[in-house]
Design goal:
single chain; alpha/beta; five-stranded parallel sheet; 52% helix; globular
């Protein structure tokens, strides 16, 4: 029997139209998730997911709830087909969906936290405009050295934010320091440097200014011990209990996403199939680059979801 790891995507996986075909096929999802989410948030998140426009879906405080909700309804459809994970993990924002899947958070509480998280992150960017860039083809030691040199030269902040796959690291910080680090990476022989279209400098020390505010939001929510093993971004280790889940989410705000070691931990502990549960295919690419011998499935639309369900049910 397959030991399936469900992987939940983060910001950057959003697209206009996401989730619409699932609700067309499964109308019960409207009353179960979309209508309550619209009422809870006080705006039509469902319309923005399905119809856009893209510029209204792009702000961090909208994108994060949108990706979370789409991943959640995809999870519901997979479970309706009898598919349950042996492990779960989520990339950045996706960790909240993973915690819902593991029984740690009620989905409504997670949606409130995700919305608040997006608001706080956007506020940081208003005060200290930041940027992020993916550096491809350099090892972590080289990127750490580049970050140190760029920060010293510019006087700003630039740090490793995401370890996405063995040859892709993302840096985050103040705009000029990130621009300088990107230029240094090119000079150091990076195969490719990509400036990311994001709404804030995620997962770096600039986010520490809102940690205390978010601590209060986390304290207002009921957390439970996981019933499915969850690998956390901050540690690339398992969430031990409810208190540890809170601590990991707090650390995640300003700490790097350790995705490559997360995938390797899952494989070492027996995960033999990866399923990206949500609107994107980025995590499928990361998993393929890190562990190419493990089967990967995306579920970003109805067609891919059908293919994944057919393959996965045949493996059980």
């Amino acid at each position: 029997m397959a030991a399936i790891a469900f992987l939940f995507p983060g910001q950057g996986s959003q697209r206009v139209g996401m989730g619409r075909d699932l609700v067309t096929r499964h109308p019960e999802l409207w009353d179960r998730y979309y209508r309550p989410a619209d009422e809870l948030l006080g705006f039509e998140l469902s319309r923005l997911c399905w119809e856009g426009p893209a510029e209204e879906l792009r702000p961090t405080e909208v994108t994060q709830p949108a990706v979370f909700l789409t991943s959640l309804v995809t999870l519901d459809v997979l479970r309706a087909h009898g598919l349950e994970p042996s492990f779960v993990a989520g990339h950045s924002l996706g960790e909240y969906t993973a915690l819902v899947a593991a029984g740690v958070l009620d989905w409504r509480d997670a949606l409130r936290l995700v919305r608040r998280r997006g608001e706080l992150m956007a506020a940081v960017n208003e005060r200290t405009p930041g940027a992020m860039a993916a550096l491809i083809g350099l090892d972590p030691a080289a990127v750490r050295d580049i970050c140190g040199k760029a920060a010293a030269e510019d006087g700003g902040t630039v740090e490793i934010a995401n370890d996405n796959e063995p040859e892709q690291l993302v840096v985050s910080g103040t705009r000029e320091a990130v621009r300088l680090a990107a230029a240094m990476a090119r000079e150091a022989g990076a195969r490719r440097v990509v400036t990311l279209d994001v709404g804030a400098p995620f997962h770096c020390s600039l986010m520490r200014e809102v940690e205390e505010e978010f601590r209060a939001d986390l304290a207002a929510v009921a957390f439970r011990d996981p019933v499915v093993p969850v690998v956390a971004n901050a540690t690339a280790g398992y969430v031990a209990d409810a208190a540890d889940a809170v601590a990991c989410l707090r650390r995640q705000l300003a700490g790097p996403v350790r995705w490559t070691p997360t995938l390797r931990r899952l494989a070492e502990d027996g995960a033999d199939t990866f399923v990206e549960v949500g609107p994107g295919k980025v995590l499928t690419g990361f998993a393929r680059a890190t562990l190419p011998d493990i089967p990967q499935f995306a579920t970003r639309d109805g067609r891919q979801l059908d293919r994944a369900v057919a393959s996965l049910t045949s493996m059980l």
